[in-house]
Design a protein that fits this description.
The complex is a heterodimer of chains A (about 450) and B (about 600). Chain A is an all-alpha fold. Chain A is about 70% helix and about 0% strand. Chain A is globular. In chain B, the strands form two sheets. In chain B, strands 6-2-3-5-4-7-10-8-9 form a nine-stranded mixed sheet, sandwiched between helices. The radius of gyration of chain B is 28 Å and the shape is globular. Classes of the chains: A mainly alpha (about 450), B alpha/beta (about 600).
């Protein structure tokens, strides 16, 4: 009897999983058509020219220019035009000329690929998460209704896919040919590799991300923690680090044309780290460093970069060592807020990972506020940009105000999620009930 | 960090407060916003205008312009000359005069392919002369422009301004101190000629492709720093009115406005803003009312986003510009001749000539309750935000309520309907382009197409079953709030009018079980449909204009006028890039439809309550 029941359950699950796959395919098709429709309209160039979409690091115009200079045997790194690595340029060129033959197609396929990889990764992660909480008796009475249900994995993975494909931020990034969309593909490959326990894939993808946009380098820590905690394998963790370093070296060797030409370092990592290009973007660096007296510049560059990279890395890694996936998402969030040249695709990518924490939402406090601030700041940003640059009537302060609100919304969001996670962990052990001797107790962080 | 890590921050007292008192909070926020804004007109709450840009040095030099006799002579000659031409500029005479004076004189041809009727084409010709600055290398320029009006024009004549323009050119060409080129421009066909000239000068096209063919300029000067547009209706001037409202609600830098005023005072020319000058009152209420009426007068022209003079087209190119309109009737009993007007022009140009950087010091966002008082963005924006905040507070309360009820919501369905509504808006927006594909006069086709689409869209909510109207309401409220803030940023007058009208209605809309209330809110909501509002405004306007006619006739007039208003706004958006039509169709109408959907929501009154 019990055997029969379990097979039936499995059948049901298989059917529902099939229908989810169908749903996923349908979503992907709609997303592809939507992207293609907008890309071929007159809005493409308008979107692509917006600073929110194309930063010096992610502008497709610069890539085409650099690629052209390469083909004429001129070193594009002599000027300060190109901020992508030689490997990335080569990759785009090969992809464009030999695989896709159409820019629109290339960006759409990579974007859909990101979506699919996230979908598959999250499906497995959510399934494991649900399995982990399967034995309901282990947990207190009053958290039962918050525990993930049977179809948790199916639901969450579809949400993530939808969240990525129809998220206005990633949509705009893709339509605007932001190369960050392609970087995000490798980032999703990294998450995919991490969750499926593939050392080679994850460390390779991470090495690619790290060489292109530097900041993901810190993700090596959650990766190794993931292998230690989820796969109980120290060898995998060590292997991941070794592999990562090897790939980094190999890619750098290629980039430097086998040790002959290191001029790209100044233009890629120099640009990311010392922020010479102060073209406004949605980040926090440009305004600060335009206003800065030059002799303080170095000090603040160090403090800003430390803030982005290692300031939160160690404490968060210690606190969330048991949930390395949460740690990864938190770090991705912090990178996208504090990096030197953020664009909309960055936020789009991390926002699409939020449905993974659907079980934490009841504990979140600022969800609505964050949503409102994000909506208002994202719609005010282009308006104020227009007033500043085209109408010449507003000024930089207006735009900076908006980017500040935008950053604040994200900070609220990530803090809220992390705090909800600690609450969740607490309530799994002790229950939701916080009564102490019949009186309401208060949870506090100490 | 208490705000972020306080465990009871979100769902604690604040939420309860919001849930219990959100209705009152919304009303309070709205009222505070409106009262705040209205009280800004009182001189206690706004400030005196002042010069921010030191380089201007207004009125520091002695005026030396003396060519008023010459101006009168030009005026007589010009009057005779215009009789020889039907509708075009007397360009041969103008070119000859410019050359005689010693300017580089050119003509500029432009063509307009009517956006509404592909078979119609208009031609125009501008004339301009450039005075090359002796002290700089043509890197910067100032513009003195006049719209030419043929005798058959319905607008009052501007011939005296051409006369004084020529006389000023004659005077200026001999002076050694010019560091910026001066362009003397005479435009054809009112704003069309100006737009074409500006587009040609900057080599861009602002409206739709192939509508206004701006042609080429044979001679250019440098980057234009400031422009003065002259519209003098007589050689004896009673008062000068300064007009500033530009395209899409842009305003010139307040320094330029102050400059013009200051020079007028110095030369003893009586000047006004909105035909009102300074007035003194003992009673604070009458004082406030006087200023508030002035403020409203500015806001009504400002809100339309249609320039009230040729200056309004300069602003989008980052050129500060204003119009000086001179009327013959006097406000104080005395009139001035062309001598004083010439000296006003001299003063403004010599001050602008001193500029080291482009105008940037003073305000670009302001409202004027009088010519010497201003309300800055820092004062009016909080009021606008307070009004918009009422919507967001309501949305927030609705959201928390939804969270408490803990029901499953089909968000995706709501989002799909929400997006669909915006597609309807996008379709309405592209109607003119679609209509253009059919090759005939489409002005009435557009209007009736528009009306029919809008009426059909009213039926959309009827197909909604099992729909979570609550979530739709939250989305609609948030969208309206965001839109109002963005609108107020761009054009505070339009934003304010929209807020004051739409926010109370949006606050009333709720999902009820009361049938009567449901119908009432539907009725109220139809009343504030953008087209209903347009119709009401136009009807009132035509009733005021033709108040001796019967109601039927007035209504008929109003319908025709409404149709014309819509067609004009479509044409404006295609020729000048005016975004009013785009904003209304792409944002306001879809948002209106979203709320309209919500009014169809009903709480099913629980049957068998006592079982």
């Amino acid at each position: 009897m019990s055997l029969k029941k379990s097979t039936k359950n499995a059948e049901v699950q298989e059917i529902s999983s099939k229908s989810t796959t169908l749903k996923a395919l349908l979503l992907v098709t709609i997303a592809a058509l939507l992207r293609y429709a907008i890309m071929t309209s007159k809005y493409q160039s308008i979107i692509a020219n917006h600073v929110e979409v194309s930063t010096p690091l992610s502008s497709w115009k610069r890539v085409s220019e650099g690629s052209f200079l390469f083909s004429k045997n001129i070193n594009p790194y002599d000027g300060d035009l190109l901020h992508e690595t030689p490997l990335a340029i080569k990759f785009y060129k090969v992809m464009l000329h030999y695989v896709f033959r159409n820019v629109h197609l290339m960006f759409i396929v990579f974007d859909l690929g990101t979506g699919m990889l996230l979908y598959l990764a999250v499906k497995k992660y959510a399934f494991e998460f649900q399995q982990h909480h399967k034995d309901r008796k282990k947990f207190p009475e009053d958290v039962q209704k918050y525990l993930p249900s049977q179809d948790f994995a199916q639901k969450v993975s579809i949400y993530v896919l939808m969240g990525f494909l129809f998220n206005p931020y990633s949509l705009l990034g893709c339509i605007g040919h932001s190369t960050m969309g392609i970087h995000n593909f490798f980032l999703s490959l990294f998450i995919f590799g991490m969750i499926y326990g593939s050392v080679v894939v994850s460390s390779f993808a991470l090495a690619v991300c790290a060489t292109v946009s530097f900041y993901p380098v810190i993700l090596i820590l959650p990766l190794s923690i993931y292998f230690v905690k989820e796969y109980k394998s120290n060898t995998k963790a060590v292997l991941a680090i070794v592999n990562f370093v090897t790939f980094l070296v190999l890619i750098t060797i290629y980039n430097s044309n086998f040790g002959k030409d290191f001029s790209f370092v100044k233009n890629v990592y120099g640009c990311i780290l010392s922020v010479p290009d102060l073209q406004p973007n949605i980040g926090l660096f440009w305004y600060f460093f335009t206003e800065m007296f030059d002799h303080f510049r170095e000090l603040f560059i160090y403090s800003f970069q430390i803030n982005t990279t290692i300031l939160y890395l160690v404490p968060l890694s210690i606190r969330f060592r048991n949930t390395p996936f949460v740690l990864t998402v938190a770090l991705l969030f912090l990178i996208s807020i504090f990096k030197s040249y953020p664009c909309l695709s960055d936020l789009g990518f991390v926002l699409s990972l939020l449905p993974n924490f659907v079980h934490l939402f009841p504990d979140c406090q600022q969800g609505f506020v964050v949503g409102v601030i994000l909506v208002i700041s994202s719609s005010l940003a282009p308006v104020l940009w227009h007033l500043w640059i085209y109408s010449a009537s507003a000024n930089a302060n207006f735009y900076f105000g908006v980017t500040l609100a935008y950053a604040i919304a994200q900070i609220f969001l990530v803090t809220d999620i992390l705090f909800a996670q600690t609450k969740w962990e607490y309530s799994l052990k002790h229950g939701k009930d916080t009564k102490i001797d019949g009186e309401d107790g208060v949870l506090s962080l100490e | 960090m208490g705000l972020l890590t306080d465990p009871n921050g979100g769902q604690g007292k604040l939420t309860k407060l919001l849930l219990n008192y959100h209705g009152k909070l919304c009303k309070l926020s709205y009222l505070i916003g409106v009262i705040w804004f209205c009280s800004l007109a009182a001189p206690q709450f706004n400030s005196n205008t002042y010069f921010s840009e030191n380089a201007l040095l207004p009125g520091l030099v002695k005026s030396t312009f003396q060519q008023d006799r010459l101006a009168l002579q030009y005026f007589q000659e010009l009057k005779d000359e215009t009789q020889k031409y039907d509708s075009s500029l007397p360009y041969a005479w103008l070119l000859a005069k410019f050359r005689q004076i010693g300017l580089d004189a050119y003509t500029h041809n432009f063509t307009l392919h009517s956006p509404l009727n592909p078979n119609e084409t208009f031609y125009g010709k501008n004339v301009y002369g450039i005075l090359r600055a002796p002290r700089a290398s043509s890197t910067e320029a100032l513009v003195l422009s006049v719209p030419y009006r043929p005798p058959s024009s319905i607008h009052p004549t501007t011939l005296p301004s051409i006369a004084i323009q020529l006389a000023f050119a004659k005077f200026a060409v001999k002076e050694k101190y010019w560091a910026k080129d001066i362009i003397f421009l005479i435009t054809d066909h009112e704003q069309l000629g100006m737009q074409a000239w500006l587009e040609a000068y900057h080599g861009v096209s602002c409206g739709n492709k192939d509508v206004l063919n701006h042609g080429d300029l044979k001679g250019r000067a440098g980057a234009i720093q400031a422009a003065i547009n002259l519209e003098l209706h007589s050689v004896r001037i009673g008062y000068l009115d300064i007009k500033i409202e530009g395209l899409n609600g842009q305003l010139p830098n307040l320094d330029l406005f102050n400059l013009a005023g200051k020079i007028c005072i110095k030369e003893g020319v009586f000047y006004t803003f909105k035909s009102k000058s300074r007035a003194y009152f003992r009673d604070p209420y009458t004082e406030w009312l006087y200023y508030f009426k002035n403020l409203l007068a500015m806001m009504t022209t400002h809100a339309t986003g249609i320039p009230n003079g040729n200056h309004g087209l300069f602003l989008r190119f980052g050129i500060q510009a204003l119009t000086l309109e001179g009327f013959e009737q006097s406000k104080e009993g005395s009139r001035v001749g062309l001598l004083n007007i010439g000296r006003v022009i001299e003063g403004i140009f010599r001050s602008s000539n001193n500029l080291l950087e482009r105008f940037h010091q003073s305000f670009f966002f302001y409202l004027l309750p009088n010519y010497d008082r201003y309300i800055s963005i820092g004062l009016y924006m909080p009021a606008a935000c307070m009004i918009a905040a009422a919507l967001i507070i309501k949305a927030c309360a609705k959201w928390f309520k939804l969270q408490e009820e803990d029901i499953n919501v089909a968000y995706i369905k709501v989002i799909v309907v929400f997006v669909l509504m915006h597609f309807i808006g996008a379709f309405v927006n592209s109607l003119p382009q679609i209509a253009q594909l059919f090759n005939y006069d489409v002005s009435s086709a557009i209007f009736f197409g528009l009306i029919s689409v809008l009426i059909t869209s009213l039926l959309v909510p009827l197909v909604l079953k099992d729909f979570s109207f609550e979530v739709m309401l939250i989305f609609a409220l948030l969208e309206l709030g965001t839109t109002l803030i963005c609108l107020s940023m761009n054009n505070i007058s339009l934003g304010m009018f929209c807020s004051v009208i739409s926010v109370p209605m949006a606050l009333i809309i709720d999902i009820t079980s009361n049938k009567f209330f449901n119908y009432l809110q539907k009725l109220l909501w139809i009343l504030i449909h953008p087209f209903t509002i347009l119709f009401i405004v136009v009807t009132i306007n035509s009733w005021l204009l033709f108040n001796q006619e019967s109601i039927g006739e007035v209504l008929l007039r109003a319908i025709v006028a409404t149709q014309e208003a819509v067609i004009y706004s479509v044409a404006d958006s295609m020729i000048y890039g005016n975004w009013l039509y785009t904003v209304v169709t792409m944002v306001l109408i879809p948002n209106w439809l979203c709320f309209w959907c919500v009014t169809f929501g009903r709480i099913k009154s629980p049957k068998n309550k006592f079982d």
